[in-house]
Write a structure and sequence with these properties.
binds adenosine-5'-triphosphate, 10 helices, cell membrane, Rossmann fold, alpha/beta, ATP hydrolysis activity, four-stranded antiparallel beta sheet, 2 domains, P-loop_NTPase
């Protein structure tokens, strides 16, 4: 089957900066895929190349089987891209902007779909408002709407929830999840790892222009749990002193909280008993299980040690 996105041996250089190096990636139709990585890892550069907005220095990219350079128009029709930056035309209302965007794709009678998008992104009240009068969060909703006017089979969202409120996140993800269930392929970049964990099937982690990990969320978390079995407990104590007997279990001490390693649940009761005996009160307690954030931190740290 033709993949939704295929990236083969892609390199991108900006003068002396190597932003992408030997990238291979195959994203299947219908996947919900995340591109993760620290600032400057190369996520936006890769998205720009997939979108045909930037040329790779070497390598090839196709979207739904169409080469993004030699078959640019066909590839572009297959894609809806929500950019990171808030770019908008200040002269039109939300609805006008969506009608004009439909026109770019040669779609004339798109009102039903435009109404559906407006409704699902909770933009109904703002449909006749001028773009320049919208708040940042509302403008971001319109950017998402614009990317969807031509019902693209592949949707790319570059940090769509950066700096937006909880309500928009929920509205946006509910709609995007629905589109994914309807068969659209979704590619997402985000710094909110809990979003990637909750939504995505597979993730690729980029570091300094290279893919350092590519696997399913489930595999990544279970490998981390296997390499580092057990749980950890986060404790805020009063007074802020840890009994010496517990010191060997300390993993870290952040923001006045101790993170302690425990092998299993049965170690919780002796820990509580020891705190009771030493008259130390528990102000906060949380049991932590391996998550995508821990996987990400471990992989980035491991990779840093290997680079040294
Ligand atoms: N137009 C450009 N000219 C020169 N260097 C660039 C250009 N665009 C990106 N870079 C460099 O390429 C590297 C990758 O940048 P990119 O924006 O793709 O990272 P990113 O993973 O999207 O980061 P962020 O999470 O901050 O958005 C960085 O070192 C960046 O400085």
């Amino acid at each position: 089957m033709i993949p939704a996105i295929e990236v083969k041996q892609v390199y991108k250089h900006f003068d002396t900066v190597c932003a992408l190096s030997d990238i291979h990636l195959e994203i299947k139709k219908g996947e919900f895929f995340a591109l993760l990585g620290p600032n400057g890892a190369g996520k936006t550069t890769l998205i720009s190349i997939i979108s045909g907005l930037s040329l790779a220095s070497a390598g090839t990219v196709s979207v739904m089987g169409y080469d993004v350079v030699t078959e640019y128009r066909e590839a572009r029709r297959m894609l809806g891209v929500v950019p990171q930056e808030l770019v908008f035309d200040p002269f039109f209302t939300v609805r006008e902007a969506l009608v004009i965007q439909s026109g770019y794709y040669g779609i004339k009678h798109n009102h039903d779909w435009i109404d559906t998008i407006i409704h699902n992104l909770d933009l109904t009240d703002k449909a006749n408002t001028n773009m320049r009068a919208l708040s940042g969060g509302m403008k971001r909703r319109v950017l998402v709407a614009q990317a969807l006017v031509h019902k693209p089979p592949v949707i790319i969202l570059d940090e769509p929830t950066a700096g937006v409120d909880v309500e928009l996140r929920q509205t946006l993800w509910n709609f995007i999840k629905q589109l994914n269930q309807d068969g659209h392929t979704i590619v997402l970049t985000t710094h909110y790892l809990e979003e990637a964990e909750a939504l995505c099937h597979r993730v690729a982690m980029l570091k300094q222009g290279k893919i350092v990990t590519l696997d399913s969320v489930q595999n990544l978390i279970s490998h981390t749990a296997h390499d580092n079995p057990g749980y950890s407990v986060r404790l805020r104590l009063s007074p802020d002193i840890l009994p010496p007997k517990l010191e060997k279990q300390v993993i870290s001490c952040v923001d006045g909280c101790y993170i302690l390693k425990i092998e299993d649940y049965f170690q919780i009761e002796p820990l509580l008993a020891l705190l009771r005996e030493t008259n130390i009160q528990i102000l906060e307690m949380q049991l932590l299980q391996p998550d995508l954030e821990e996987v990400f931190v471990n992989i980035m740290r491991k990779n840093e040690l290997e680079l040294k």
